[in-house]
Every structure is written in structure tokens, then in C-alpha cells.
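fyi for ur records
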Amino acid sequence: MNPDTPIEHHGAKLDFSADMSYSDYLQLDALLNAQHPRSPDHNEMLFIIQHQTSELWMKLMLHELRAAVAAIAADQLPPAFKMLARVSRIMEQLVHAWDVLATMTPPEYSAIRPYLGRSSGFQSWQYRCIEFLLGNKKAAMLKPHSHRPELLAQVEAAWRAPSLYDEALRLLARRGITVPESHTERDWTQAYQASDGVQQAWLSVYRTPQSQWDLYQLGEELTDLEDAFRLWRFRHLTTVQRIIGEKRGTGGTAGVGYLRQMLDVVLFPEIWAVRTDL
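which gave:
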């Protein structure tokens, strides 16, 4: 068709007075009017949109992680693999999002920092649910949400439930692989502790992948996931260091020092350790 042909001749619908439009479907009026800078500084819009879009990606991560945990618990590994792969790709998006925030210089951030009060990404309830679903559980992390009972209920539910890794180990046990009972029936609110017995369980999977390929693939999906999560944490650290140096965070943490400590957290320790034995 000739590029100069009027758009209506292409069959495009142009009148939405009686039909749902793109904007209606996505509720763009609410979404695009949710940015309310508190400072007069031009750069605050970047800071707000960076964090709002990250929260949207985290909403999708939670949607996929919860479904993946349920699928593993129900012995439905193919859909779980798809969901976990999607979560890893979402984390890649979040890693690259730091590249945009890194365009904010220290003087630019200093201009908006007084307007942030004590608010901080440390207080993100969605991020806390993600960490709990991935097994990094600390009861103290419930406290920042105690002023919002409806949010606290969601964070607490993730804290009390078996994590993604807990369900993976229970699956191994159901498949006849010896997994210590201390790691298949335990207090799920406690932080995970690495086990030689669990390492041996994964070693039996990795030594004979052809006979139990889906469990082997599960191990690799978890490895991909933690690899992506580590990159996300590392990029967070370097971006914060670039913008505020060694200053304390607005939420009261040690800032870069706290983020460095988080880099040492290993979510699925035996899957990484088993590589030395192969």
C-alpha cells in the first residue's frame, strides 16, 4: 500500500468514544499522573520514575515467583522453568535500569535528598517479599511495614512460607533423593543454613543429569536466578557508591557498607558448592 495512503484506509480504528482505548486498558491516566516531585530540581523526575518502574518489575517478579513456588510444590516443573527464566530476564532489566539512574551526579542527588525524608528502597515491601521468597529471611525486616497492616500481612506470609529453595529440596526428597529431614520439614521463618547432606543430594543430581534431567535443569534455573540477583545487587551497590559515596542511606542504613554485606548472602549455597566436587 502507498505510504501516503490515509491511515483510515489501513483499517486503523480512530474513534474510541465508545470503545476501550490503549490508554484505558493500561490505566495510563493514573500511571502517568503518579509522579509528584517534592523538590524544585529537574532531576527528581528521574529518581521517581526509576523507582516506580522498578516496583512494577518487582510486582511481575512476585507474580512469577509465587507461581513458580506453587508449580514446584505441585511437581509441575516445565511451567516453573518458564517462570524462573522470566524472573531472571526481569532482573536483567533491573540491572540495566541502574545505568539510567547512574546519570544522576552527586550534586544533583544532593539537591533532592532533603526532600526524601527517611524514605528508602530499604523499605520496599515488594523487595522484602522477593528476598523472603528466595530464602533470605530475617524477622527484623518485618518491622518497617508494621504501620501498614495490609502490607505487613503480605510480607509476613512470605516470611512464614517455604521459600523457592525449600520447595526445590522437598521436590528432591519426593523424587527419592536423600535430603536431610531438617531441611524438608523445619521452621520456614528461619534463615536457611547450608547442609552437607543437601550438597550430597545435589551432587547426585549433577553426576547423573541424563537420568533426572528435570532436576538438573531446576538446579541450573536456580543458578541463573541467583546469578542475575547478584548482578542486580552489585549494580545497586556501584550506583549508590557513585552517587552518594560512603554517606549513610536515607533510611538509616550504612549505605554502601550495608549493600556490600548483602553481596555476601548466598541464596542456594549447595548448588554453588557442588561445582567444586564435580
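Residues 213-244 form the longest helix (32 residues). thats all i got for now
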